Every structure is written in C-alpha cells, then in structure tokens.
Amino acid sequence: MAQDTLDTSLNFEFWLNKAVAWGQATTLESQQDVCLHLPQLQKFLQQIYETLKHMDFHTAIQRFPLIGQLLGRLCWNPFVIGYDENQKILMWCLCCLYCSEPWNTIELEVNIWIRSLLCHLLSSSKLGLNEVGTVSQALGYTSPDYYPKLLKNMVLSLANELRVNHLNGFSIGKTIPDKQIKAMSLLCIPLLTLPDILPLLEALLTYQGDESKEILCSEFLEGVNESFLQKKIALSESAVLSLWLRHLPSLEKATLHLFENLISRHRNASPEEMECFIKDSLLPQAACHPSIFRIVDEIFWNALLETNGTSEVLTVIQVFTRCFVQAFQKNNDQLKFPLKSYFPYTSPSLIMVLLQNPKDLPRGLWCQHLNHISEILKKIVEDQSTQSCRSLFEHWFLFIHFGEWADIAAEELLMLRAESPATLLWLLAFYYNPHDQNQQRTQTMVDAAEAHGHIMKLFGRTPLSVKDLQDVTDTRHPRIQRLIRHLLLNFLLLSPDGYKIAQEFIITQTDEIASELLNLIARITYRWNRLGVETQRPAKLAKDLLQELQCYTMKSEFL
Amino acid sequence: MEVLLEQLERFAEVLAVSRTRHASSWGRVAVRRSLCWARYLRHVHGRFRLRGPVRAALEGRLRRLRLRPAPLGGDAAPAAPCPESGPPLSFEGLGCGEQLLALGLLENASLPSPALHELLQRLRPEGPAEPSEEGLGNRLAELARRRAASQLLRPLLGSGPAQPDPVLRRTEAELLLLRLRQEAEAEPGAEALLLDRLWQQLPQPRWLAVVAEALLLPPAPGPRGAACAPDEDDPGSPSDLGPAPAAPLLAWLLSRPAPLAALCRLLPAPLLASLAGRHADLAEACLDLLWDWAGHLHFDLTKGAWVGSDPEGLTWERLRDCFRCFCQAPAPLSLQARIALDSCRARDGGFEAPGLSVWTDLEREERSDDFSKITYLGLNLRF
C-alpha cells in the first residue's frame, strides 16, 4: 500500500540517522537512547524484512538505497544485537541480499561485505575481545563451544562481585561504585530475555546500596517487570519481591495486569482457575510485605468503586485474600508482620474473627461464629464515636475480603439453621448496603425479613413456576435486589424443585443479572469443593447448571 | 549400524574439508547434503547422548578416524589434523554439528557464492524445505546474541587490556579440562600428547596461567550416578567432568621438568602457593625444585646478596617470595615449608649468622615477617 511504503521510507531515514548517532553505543547517552528505542526498532526491522524477503539484491537497492549502511551500522552496535530478536532479523536481511550468482564487481563486493558482516556477528575470529582466540583455538574450539561458557562465567563473576560488594559495604569499602552498578543495569536492558543473564538480574534486583535513592536505572526495572509479566523470564520470588519493593510503578502494573487477566481476558474463569492465575503472579506471596499489600489493596478498592462493586470484583478480592492468607500462614521462617499492619484502620478483634477459616470450624458452629461477626460489626457500625464515613467503609472493605462468611450466612439462612435469622440478615444487608443510615437500615431489615420469609415459603410450593420466583424479585424492594437475588439463588441450588426451573429462570434475566448469578454459582461451588461440604448432590447439580448456562450465554453472545 | 558409522565418517571428512580450500569445489548440492548429514547426526546425538553401547561405538569410530590420514582425493594429507581444518570431531561435537559446519563454511573465503547462498537461504525462516530443518538460523542467532552479551558485559569486569582477564582464564581452563577428558576417552595417553603440543605452541605465561586456573577449579559437587544426564547446554561444567578432572593435567605437569620449572619460576608467588596448597604432590615437587635451585645460589660478598650462577635461573628474591607465601598458606603447606626450611638449615650446619647458608637467611626473613605480622589477605588469591 502506498501509505505503508511512505511510512517505511520516512522511518528508514529516521532509523538510519539514529544508527549513525548511536555509533557503537559507547557513551552513556547513546546507550540510554538505544535502550529507549529497542522495541520500536525491532518492529521496524521486521517490516523491512517483510519487504526484503520478496526481493533480490537489485530490487532491494532500488527500494532502499542505503540499506547497506543501516544494516552495517546496526550490526556493530552490541546493544542492538543483544536485544530479543534483532540479531535474527538482521541476519535474515543479510541473507536476503546475498547474490547467488554475482555477475559484476559490485555484486562480488556486496557478497564479500555480507560474508564479513555475518562472520562478525557469529564468529570469534575478528574480535574486540583480548586474544580470546589463542588458547581456545589451540584447543580446537570455536564460538559455539565457548561463548556460552564465557558468558556464564562472566555472569557468575559479576553476580558474585555484587554480592561481595554488598557485604563489604559496611566495613572494607565498596569495590564497585554506585555509578558502575547503574551502568550495569543499563547494559542488561537489551539482554533481559536471555536466560544466561538471570543470575546477574537477580543479583542486581536484590542489591541494596547505602543510599536511600534508587541505584538501578528505572528503564531496567520497568523492563524486568514487563518481561516477567509476559512470562519471558523466570525470576525467583525474592527477586520479584525486591523489584516490587523498590519500584512502585512495577508493582502497580503487575496488579493491574493481574486484574485485567482475571476480569477481561478470562471472564469465565472459575475461582479455581483464578486461584491459579493469582498464585502464579506471585502477588499474594509478595503481599506478605505490608507495604505491598496496602498498595494492592488500594488498587482493589479503586476497582470496587469504579465498577460499583460488581460480583466479579468481589470474587477476585475474595480469592486473592484467600491466597494471601495461605501465603502468610506458610511464611514461617521469615519475618512475620502483625496483622494490624495489613489492616491498620480496622478493629483487631474483627480481623481475628474474620480470619477464622470455616474449614477449621465444625459446621455446626458456623452460625455461632457468624453471630459473633455480626455482633462486632454491628457494634462498630452503630458506635457513634467511630462513626466516620471512612471508618465505616474500611470495615466494610475488610469484610469484603472475607466475603465467604457472607456467602455462608446466606446459605445458613436458607437451611434454617440460624437461631436468630435477623442477625444473619443484618450481616448480609451490611454486605450489600453498607451506606445505610440508621432509619434506612431499619427499613432494610424489615424488607429483608419479608423477602426471606417469602423465599422460605417457596420450599413447600409445588409445582414451582418461574412466575413464583419472579414475584419475589419484583421491584417491591428496590434497594435490596442483590440481597434477594443472593438468597433466591441459594434456594434454587438447595431445593430440588427450585433446581428444576433454575436455568429457565436465569435465562429470563438481563445479561448483567445473569452474569452476576453465574458468578455467585461459581463462588458457591468453589466454596463447597474447598470445604468438603456434604451437599454433594447439590454441588454436582450446581456445577452442571453453571456449565449449561455458560454455554448458553456464550451462544447468545455469538448470535 | 554400519550405515550410521559410514555416515559419521563421511560427515567428519566433510566437516574437515569445509574449512579448507578444497571447499572451492563445492556447489549447492554439496552444501545441502552436508547440512542434511549434520542434522541427522544431531538427532543421533540427541538420542544416544546418555552413555550406552551406541555412543561407545560412535566414539570408537571417531577415534579411529583421527588416527587415519584424511583422504583428500589426491593430495597427500598430513596424518595430524592441520590447524586450519578445525578440531577433530568428537561425539559432543555432533550436537552442534550444523552450527560448526555453517560457521566453517561462512568463514571459508574459498567457498563459491552459489554454495554460500544455499547455506544462507537455509538460515531464513522461509528457507528450509522441511520443518526438521528449522532451528539452525535460530541457534546461530542465539550465538550472535551471546557474543553481543559478552561484548556488553566485558567492560564491567574491570580488567584493562594489560591485566589478564580472570573470566577468560576460567573459561579457557574449563575448555582445557573438557578437551583433556575428550582426549582421554578417545585414547589413553592422548592427553599428554595434547599438553605437550600446547606447551610448545602457546606463549608460556599464557599457558601457565590457564594451567594454574585449571588446577584451581573447584571440584565436582559430589558423586553422581551413571544415570545422571550430562548438562546439555554446558558439557564442560565441573560437575560433568567427573571427580578429578585435573588429574591428567597434574600428572603431566609432574612428569615434565621444563613446564614445572617454568611454573615455579614465572607464576606469581601467591598463586603458586594456592596451587601447592591444593595439590600435595605439586607442593612436594615445587619444594624439591626450590631446594635444588637454592643449591645454585652463592653469596656474593661484594654485593652483599645471594646471586645465582645462572642468569636465567632462580633469583634470591623469587626464592624468598615463594617461601614467604608457602609459609603463610593454610595448614599442611605451611608446615611442610617450615619443616623443609628447618631441615635444610640444619643440614647446612645450623648457622645463625647471615650470608653463610641460604636457608638461614630464608628463615630469618620468615621470622622477621612473623614478627612484623604481615598477612596476605586471602591466600587463595587468584590472579
């Protein structure tokens, strides 16, 4: 396309000028500039190759008269060659230009030039390295034999120096000045995805200087984070932790990346799959460090606000907290921070009581525990002296983290095991409507009790029809719609009659409500699996229902 | 099996020829065929890499190939491999045979254009006709990337052009041990021949530095069962070389007076002490040599110092430095050195006055060192 050709031509001039300015990237400025442009350069080279691969030498020269200059200069820039796939693409371009049957002097010379450039890229015979050939050549080895070894030894030596430097910092005095460490990090930027470099990356990331200022250059930290998020390098947990502790933007990016994965890209992921993603991201493990936890939490908080607390986000927070608690409890040998450092604005007694894993309590005691939670929360909410908007939402946010208890409350209400359903209803009401003022709350409680009663009556009714269900969810109580849906869903899963018409009912709902209900079902089956609850038949039925509904929604989206 | 062995021979020849001017007769078909062989043998290497009867048979055939004069069609070829034809092919070399071939062809100026063109087309993603051919371009690109990485990281290692580069030494030492192991597997006794040749060929200080490094490399981490697969990416890593990789090197050194003498004379004294501390045999040999040399020193009254009769031989300063480092080395060596000093001094008559016995004077030096409490930091200094 004409537009493309124009773009490439303009770009060509731009990149040729850059290549000339960079030279062999010996100055700090040129090095920094190269590192900044590496990804775009690779894209550009790919475009060039796509064009060149259909051409022979003559056509290529007509199209790009200065191609020789560009390729030649780039091949002598080790930053360019060391990055990702640049060396491959440059090699391909050179191979394209080679004349198979040179007819004149020019073509002969071009061939000689290409051959020497390829030799420079690949072999050791004309090196800037100090006599590296002598002994190795005498031994009969060539570049494929010793470059891997040489590089490995270089990396180990540098990583070792860093470690020693770090230890010596307090007594003998450093052998490596800070400026050189910064230079080291800059030099690693093109090499990030080369597996051999990993020990050096880890040594740099865990290096602590004396200064409180960051020594490593920020492009390095960003580059490492990016490569880690794209799974191009396999860093150890401690290296990732160091990275996130010293570079806030990386942590934020990692959290947002996880969120995007869970909410947008894998929308139908079950909580089990979410758990896998979350654990892989290393964020729960890193969050054992309170400062990291606070930042991740802040991002969750914003997500909640932006989406008005949709069910998907609530599930993510719940699963994340579960993974975090697991990591926290496993963290025996390292420094354990007090719980208060993770949730500084909330009452410690509430934290303790919410932290209780339902798995560790006999089922019969769940109601009692829920009552306890409800009591504490109620006291906090109704206590005039702590009644600040912020405090209220902090406590509600804490409750959201352990929202499993709210799910259990809904279930217990349906199973009629509660001595005082009002307490459990209050809990659920607070879960969905934290901002109710006193009078509103009283009204909410009345409405909720009525709805609950209505649903309990459905147990006896046969035959059950969709209309009966719709009667419950009509807009008589607009402010507690979500609470009602939650209770109704539990009914549908726990009662055989309800189960029969569940699918029919859910299909009649709007897309938004349907996905909320699906999300709830997923959460419920996840909990049942984890807690090994004896509702095995309902569990299997719920799973089947979920699968059928997911197929249905995908089909309807497609249509 | 016989077919496989034949192809192995054919490929070894081809690889040797690819680096010589005989490649000027190659055309496209020759290049294609040789790459095909290389690829096939790479698969063979991958399959039989873990030691077993097939691998042993292949290694045996390669061994015999090396002893046979290479038939180069009419030309009287020398029996020993000429340097320009590259190293003799080993079993491990089959693993990167394609790369070796490609590099050989690339570096060979006498290869005609159509032939090189054929090779270059196969490096491109669209080039290979079959999917099994892919990968050569990628592997070469990886090599280029590693080379660039070494170039980038080199300035950080801090050694200038005048100073020897420790990382380079270490790499060369590892390669030396790898080669020694390969030679030993090929034929017992071949290691000594190789080491003799290298001693003749390379400049002494360079060679001695590599030998010292090789002798100081850390030993293998622990006994490994035969079932353990060798490290594919790094065949020369210490763990793969077996429990005593430097044994042949040490044996050679101890059996050759000239290199041993050069070692004692030229190596920096602290490094010599580390070596001696690590290998008891070497310590004994060095002490013997030093004792022998000391006998050639006489006290020159006009200069007031010990001088040697042979201007090329050991100087008093060297003797003193060596003993100083030996006495300050950790346990067995320091004890050995001091006992040697004492006994030699006693043998000479046990004098206390300076200028009468070289041993007395040496011991006085040691005592004054102890008195002023000079310590060398970290006696395992590796230069």
Automatic annotation (TrEMBL), chain A:
One of its GO terms (biological process) is nucleotide-excision repair. Transmembrane segments: none annotated. It is found in: Nucleus. Pfam families: Fanconi_C. InterPro entries: FANCC. Its main location: nucleus. The keyword Acetylation does not apply. GO terms for cellular component: Fanconi anaemia nuclear complex. Keywords: Cytoplasm, DNA damage, DNA repair, Nucleus. DNA repair protein that may operate in a postreplication repair or a cell cycle checkpoint function. May be implicated in interstrand DNA cross-link repair and in the maintenance of normal chromosome stability. Upon IFNG induction, may facilitate STAT1 activation by recruiting STAT1 to IFNGR1. PANTHER family: FANCONI ANEMIA GROUP C PROTEIN (PTHR16798:SF0), FANCONI ANEMIA GROUP C PROTEIN FANCC (PTHR16798). Belongs to the multisubunit FA complex composed of FANCA, FANCB, FANCC, FANCE, FANCF, FANCG, FANCL/PHF9 and FANCM. This complex may also include HSP70. This is Fanconi anemia group C protein homolog. It comes from Sarcophilus harrisii (Tasmanian devil). The gene is FANCC.
From TrEMBL, chain B:
The keyword DNA repair applies. Keywords: DNA damage, DNA repair, Nucleus. Gene3D superfamilies: 1.25.40.490. One of its GO terms (biological process) is interstrand cross-link repair. InterPro entries: FANCF (IPR035428), FANCF_C_sf (IPR038505). One of its GO terms (cellular component) is Fanconi anaemia nuclear complex. It is found in: Nucleus. DNA repair protein that may operate in a postreplication repair or a cell cycle checkpoint function. May be implicated in interstrand DNA cross-link repair and in the maintenance of normal chromosome stability. This is Fanconi anemia group F protein. It comes from Sarcophilus harrisii. The lineage of its organism: Eukaryota, Metazoa, Chordata, Craniata, Vertebrata.
